[in-house]
Amino acid sequence: MSASPQHSRFAPDRGLTGRMVTTMFLIGLLYVGFTGVLIALLRGAWPLIVLISGGLFVAQFWFSDKITERAMGAHEVTPEQYPQLHGTIDRLCALADMPKPRVAVANNDMPNAFATGRKPEKAVVCVTTGMLRRLEPEELEGVLAHELSHVAHRDVAVMTIAGFLGVLAGVMTRIALYGGFMGSGNRNSSDSNTAIAMLIIPVVSMVVYAISFLLTRLLSRYRELAADRAAAQLTGRPSALASALTKVTGQIAAIPSEDLRKAQAYNAFYFAPALSARDAATQLFSTHPSLETRLEQLGRISAQLGQ
Fold this sequence. Notes:
The chain is mainly alpha-helical. The chain contains twelve helices and four strands; from the N terminus they run H-H-H-E-H-E-E-E-H-H-H-H-H-H-H-H. The protein has a four-stranded mixed beta sheet with strand order 1-2-4-3, sandwiched between helices. It is elongated.
């Protein structure tokens, strides 16, 4: 899978490409090692382990756009229903020389947007009704350019796969521990193997999940900065994107906490996080850079374009 924004005028980002390749390699290595541990400890169950893990991985990759759309309440809309939204995306796609993704809207008062899909031809860009209601046209253009850059750089697919592998380790652990696959041979040997497996497998699973979690968070924060840069350079209006960021972040803070907690599970896909990290310690686990970091970058780009 190519990670570079081929057939697109979005500025290529070697830093993002390198991080995506490294993240996928490391998480893939973890996943293969974890599967190997399960196979070694649960010899009789290895065909089922491989079948389930492979099947879940393929299903997640192939249907990631549909899964994400349904989870976030998005529904595809026509140009007749949302002419301004489609018109803006048409202009940006023509400017970026990239295929137009499907366009969707989520009936949600939280102002936000996301993009998903395993490749540009299968991608979808979605905005919430809360965002459409609150943003000016040039601000909305900046947000949509940001989301389209995720599609062009193909980091959406990488984030989907990387995030899923950590979760899959937990699923496989439950299957191994509670699926009745433990033990073979005589009873004493079976009991001994079961005890060892029940100690080792959860520990390895937690390590795999923790490492994959940190790796995906690091990649997620960088890809948001990369998308901001690419959007600002494509539209030539970093100030509009900065204005959208400031407005969206401020408006999200006014949304009821219960609604934000429900949306927090999908933070990695959103333009702005539903709940932001409050200090340096929690920032390590955040899916997005701080608002200040994003605004500082856009300010530098604005100064460069002004020159």
